[in-house]
Amino acid sequence: MEKLTNNGYKIILIGGSAGSFQVTGNILSKLPTNFGIPIVLVLHRLKHVRHGFVEALLQKSKLPVIEPLDKETIKPGKVYLASANYHLYIEINGRFALSTEEAVNHSRPAIDLTFSTGSYCYQQKTVGIILSGANKDGAAGLKKVKDRGGLTIVQNPSEAQIPVMPLAAIEKSKTVDHILNSEEITEMLLLLHRKNGGN
Amino acid sequence: MRYIHNELSEIGILDLRRLNDVILKNYDTDLGIYAHTSLKRKLSRFISDNSLKDVDNLILTLKNDSSCFSRLMQSISVSCTEFFRDPSFWRILRDEIFPILNRAYNELCFWIPGCSTGEEVLSLAITLHEAGLYEKSKILTSDINAELQIKMEETVFCKSKIQISEHNYKRYRTDDINNLSDYMIYENGSYKFQEFLYKNLQYEIFKGSDLEKKSSFFHRYPGIHMILCRNYFIYFTSQHQEQLLHIFTNALAKGGYLAIGNKENISFCEDAGRYLIASESERIYKKK
Questions:
Q1: Is B192 found in the same domain as B71?
Q2: Which residue in A has a C-alpha nearest to residue B171's C-alpha?
Q3: Which of A67, B15, B84, B185 makes the best surface tag, with the fewest CB within 10 Å?
Q4: Residue B232, φ and ψ in degrees, nearest 5
Q5: B3: in domain
Q6: pTM, whole model, 2 decimals?
């Protein structure tokens, strides 16, 4: 738990695929409206379904959930969902950038790219979380978060609906900071929030 | 199929600055107009694909070999797209925008900047053809990549891209009468589009930052009726986007349309005030 004393996390990156949607909704439903750390969700989704995802998450979340536009500034108190059919980058000026470059790990958005650019920008102030999923996207990205001194969390493979993604992330990073059930992930986020001066 | 790297070596800001200085000095091209992250990614990819080891090695090669520069610019300009991306956009074009343009003008002029491998160009050509408007239309395309453009008619597409695109096309058509493959010729394992779709295209080649040339290009084609630059601004800095939008806006006829990607934004640009919203969901703007 040593890393938790290193408070002041500036960004929370959450990646997931099949089986992660409900978990994400549950986590968001428990976060207070004054939750101060911006959250970026990269969830694999059907590329041709542009609408409905944000609306579904808004049913659960007390925080505003939006799909960021290109070059939008990242702000606390918001949940950002990566849009369908674009990669979502985080630029060093603290803004999002979109890209239609080719799919990575058969995915666009690719979790790896958001995690690697996000941790490049925020370094040890990054929290990376990998949830349920059926492919290995996110493993390399989470390792980047770890290498840069950020906090790494993986959903417990035995709880995950599809454990492939969590297992790949654990294997790639060798040691992640925490392997947690979804409720514990929520508690962890609330703890980070309190450490950041929230209540 | 080429292996897709997702663990490329990281290029630092200082590396980028040194590289840009050399390119500016030797080739009069400014990489500073490109959005940082995707540029870095494309450079890393280029370095790895050309077995160049690192940025220093690239700089050294660039100093001695101008063909390396054209290949580099080619790799920067190419972005992966698909035919009929966002089918709902093409439906609005067909059902709402084309009828207005058709009534208003005897000849139509479209411009697609950053045409890349031509997916957007061909999608437009097909949409125009099916609406019976291709014969009265001219499509101007431009990119920074000379080699790519000369060969546009020769471009072949792989099966996986065609499969994705075929799905898009079906969603656009909302019927099962036509297939995208009706417009293609299958040869040696890949697809080529029929020649007539390239008939009314006109290419222009720009250097990366050659805004002046872009401006003069439009003086030769006054009053463009529609500019399709979907997912084009995302590859540039906000400052360059502002400059580009200014050129585009001046190039458009009064009442002409501008289409940008569905997650792109022009509201921070000064010229945004010169437009009305024609379609909120598809990000189509009409010049006042």
A1: no
A2: A48
A3: B185
A4: -110, -45
A5: no
A6: 0.91
What is the phi-psi region of residue B116: left when phi exceeds 0, alpha when psi lies from -120 to 50, beta otherwise?
left
Mutate to test the interface with A, among B2, B17, B37, B85 (most CBs of A within 10 A): B37
Q: pLDDT tens digits, residue range A121-149?
A: 999 999 999 999 999 999 999 999 999 99
Q: Which domain holds residue B104?
A: 87-287
Question: pLDDT at residue B4 above 50?
Answer: no
Distance from C-alpha of B65 to C-alpha of A58, rounded to nearest angstrom: 54
Catalytic residue set of A: 17, 44, 137
Whether A4 has its CB under 8 Å from any CB of chain B: the answer is no
The number of C-alpha atoms within 13 Å of A70 and in the hemisphere containing its C-beta is 28
Residue in B with minimal Cα distance to A67: B263
For residues B1-9, give the mean pLDDT: 46
Burial of B277 (0-12, 13-18, 19+ CB in 10 A): exposed
Indicate the domain borders of chain A.
2-195
- Cβ contact, residue pair A98, B264, below 8 Å: yes
Q: How many CA atoms lie within 13 A of B108 on its CB side?
A: 27
List of chain A residues whose C-beta atoms are within 8 Å of the C-beta of residue B12: none
Task: Count how many domains chain B has.
Answer: 2
- Structure tokens, B73: 């610019």
Distance from CA of B79 to the nearest CA of A (A): 5
Would you call B38 and A97 a contact, using CB atoms and an 8 Å cutoff? yes
B146's tokens: 């000379």
Q: Burial, B132: exposed, middle or buried (Cβ in 10 Å; 0-12, 13-18, 19+)?
A: exposed
Domain shared by B29 and B71, yes or no: yes
Provide the pLDDT for residue A3: 60
CATH number of the domain enclosing B120: 3.40.50.150
* Residue among A83, A101, A103 minimizing CB distance to B38: A101
Residues of B within 8 A of A42 (CB-CB) are: none
What letter does residue A79 receive in the DSSP assignment?
E
Place of tokens 């949830």: A131
User: Taking the CB of residue B95, how many other CB atoms lie within 10 A of it?
Assistant: 10
Homologous superfamily (CATH) of A2-195 is Methylesterase CheB, C-terminal domain (3.40.50.180)
Q: For residue A178, what are its two tokens? A: 């925490």
pLDDT of residue B143: 73
- What confidence tens digit (pLDDT) does each residue in A58-76 have? 999 999 999 999 999 999 9
